[in-house]
């Protein structure tokens, strides 16, 4: 067992545990967005920051979802630096996806009362990676991934065309905290030719876990989120 302190309380953690897991095991609350217990930690959102120190090393902030427990580590989950970092992160996330109920709730809980930034809302993806990891690690088909880098980084099927390995399970749409991905049933498109092409390209795909239904008539289409005319400050101030 690894011995460390969390908020000055002596605790023990199993080898290989992350700080987030140890903190939650002992009842210390830490907000997360890109973490999911069924997925490998990714460290993208930076909401789960905690302050660590191990004398003589100076204190610093780390993402608790990816940082492993270390012998003798002193962890603070609620220091001034931690709270300031989380509030700033929540505000930036909110600026990117101010219609997301999940992010609004997180920001509210962290005491964010104003959003000073406003980003265009046509793409509300916050690059948390939940959809990509769920598709890879849970569904096991790799129908989507991150493409490009820097400010052009975004989620897409390969070559930006409908994926032929997608089974239409909808996991990515369910796990997305910002509703940036939607599942579209192409049977409603009214184009027999297009439908025929899509189905013949996709062939027959069956969800191997939950279904014997042929899901090939459904493909994922990444749509730009609908523009919303609401002012972000007004929306958020309402807390809804
Ligand atoms: S589409 Fe949603 S789940 Fe995928 S990276 Fe963007 S915000 Fe995260
Ligand atoms: S939950 Fe740790 S970085 Fe997102």
Describe the structure.
The chain has 240 residues and is an alpha+beta fold. It has three domains: 2-84, Roll (Ubiquitin-like (UB roll)), CATH 3.10.20.740; 86-121, no CATH class; 130-221, Alpha-Beta Plaits, CATH 3.30.70. The protein is built from seven helices and nine strands. The strands form three sheets. The protein has a five-stranded mixed sheet with strand order 2-1-5-3-4, with helices on both faces. A two-stranded antiparallel ribbon has the order 6-7. Bound molecules: iron/sulfur cluster (SF4) and FE2/S2 (inorganic) cluster. Residues 32-35, 43-48, 63, 65 line the site of FE2/S2 (inorganic) cluster.
Distance between the termini: 44 Å
> How many domains would you count in the coordinates?
3
Order of helices and strands: EEHEEEHHHEEHEHEH
Proportion in β-strands: 15-25%
CATH class of the largest domain: Alpha Beta
Rg, Å, rounded? 21 Å
What is the β-strand count? 9
Helicity level: 25-40%
Structural category: alpha+beta
**Quick one: overall form?**
globular
Largest sheet features:
5 strands, mixed
CATH topology-level name of the largest domain: Alpha-Beta Plaits
Low-confidence stretches: 188-240
Please give the count of helices: 7
Bound molecules: iron/sulfur cluster, FE2/S2 (inorganic) cluster
CATH architecture label name of the largest domain: 2-Layer Sandwich
Averaging pLDDT over every residue, what do you get? 79
User: Strand sequence of the main sheet, in spatial order?
Assistant: 2-1-5-3-4
């Amino acid at each position: 067992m690894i011995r460390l302190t969390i908020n000055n309380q002596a605790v023990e953690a199993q080898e290989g545990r992350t700080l987030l897991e140890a903190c939650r095991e002992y009842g210390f609350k830490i907000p997360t967005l890109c973490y999911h217990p069924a997925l490998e930690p990714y460290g993208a959102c930076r909401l789960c920051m905690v302050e660590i120190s191990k004398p003589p090393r100076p204190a610093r902030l780390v993402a608790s979802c990816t940082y492993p427990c270390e012998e003798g580590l002193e962890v603070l989950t609620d220091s001034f630096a931690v709270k300031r970092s989380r509030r700033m992160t929540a505000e930036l996330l909110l600026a990117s996806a101010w219609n997301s109920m999940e992010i609004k709730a997180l920001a509210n809980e962290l005491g964010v009362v104003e959003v000073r930034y406003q980003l265009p809302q046509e793409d509300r993806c916050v690059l948390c990676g939940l959809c990509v990891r769920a598709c890879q690690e849970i569904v096991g088909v790799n129908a989507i991934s991150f493409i490009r880098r820097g400010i052009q980084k975004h989620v897409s099927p390969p070559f930006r065309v409908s994926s032929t390995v997608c089974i239409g399970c909808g996991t990515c749409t369910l796990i997305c905290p910002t509703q940036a991905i939607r599942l579209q049933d192409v049977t409603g498109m009214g184009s027999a030719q297009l439908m025929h092409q899509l189905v013949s390209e996709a062939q027959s795909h069956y969800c191997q876990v939950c279904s014997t239904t042929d899901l090939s008539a459904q493909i994922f289409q990444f749509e730009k989120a609908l523009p919303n005319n609401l002012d972000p400050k007004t929306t958020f101030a309402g807390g809804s």
